[in-house]
């Protein structure tokens, strides 16, 4: 299917992209210039320290890594930068073209100010919240594979069902994860602490969280060229979109979310 229409009531809650580059150990020296470049669109700043654990011949090595955040005034988009990656978040996602344009602006500033040598990984992740209303059942909205196995009926009260599927794609690998049941999560547990405000639905209800994580990576790295990076990002998006269209139903897309 080539005609992917805009879903006016889309279930999408958050989109994020990780651009991992060759380490820049003195990244702190560039942060003031980056903040100046981003401050008009992302005026809120934040700094966190995260632990990095590495396995070495002598045992574990634990180090602290600084992470700086630049957040939009409405907290619907944000940029996080550390010594080896830039992450762009968007809780307001009209179309991919606008999202890609925002990524380009961030990457252009990164290249102009920091000039990383190599791009090592590009990961594009979508998280959708599919809510069931009234008499709907999960198979009305998504493929029945993402619900409870029918063969287990009668053994007990179902609580939740997790699924995880990995696919090798022409660009890299696609991980599709789901969490179905009666709960209050609006996205997967590992991305609850975000620098942006997503439109959460906190009252427990029957729902399924769909998570599409598509990534390209090269352990040796390739030259950091923004146009090439964005071309890879476009390819990651195209396959992820196809996956969403295959998993969700015609009724969900044409009626519930139209």
Beta strand %? 35-45%
Going by helix content, strand content and strand pairing, the class is: alpha+beta
Helix content: 10-25%
Distance between the termini: 17 Å
Strand order of the largest sheet: 2-3-4-5-1-6-9-8-7
Largest β sheet strand count, sense and barrel closure: 9 strands, antiparallel
- Low-confidence runs of at least 5 consecutive residues: none
**Order of helices and strands, N to C?**
EHEEEEHEHEEEHH
Specify the overall morphology: elongated
* Total domain count: 2
Query: Whole-number radius of gyration?
Result: 20 Å
Q: How many runs of DSSP E, i.e. beta strands?
A: 9
What keyword list fits this structure?
258 residues; 9 strands; alpha+beta; S-adenosylmethionine decarboxylase
Write a structural description:
The protein is an alpha+beta fold and 258 residues long. It has helices at 31-38, 96-113, 138-141, 226-247, 250-256; strands spanning 12-21, 44-56, 59-71, 77-82, 85-90, 118-131, 160-168, 173-183, 205-223. Strand 2 and strand 3 (59-71) form a beta hairpin. Helix 1 (31-38) packs antiparallel against helix 2 and helix 2 runs antiparallel to helix 4. The longest helix has 22 residues, at 226-247. The two termini are 17 Å apart.
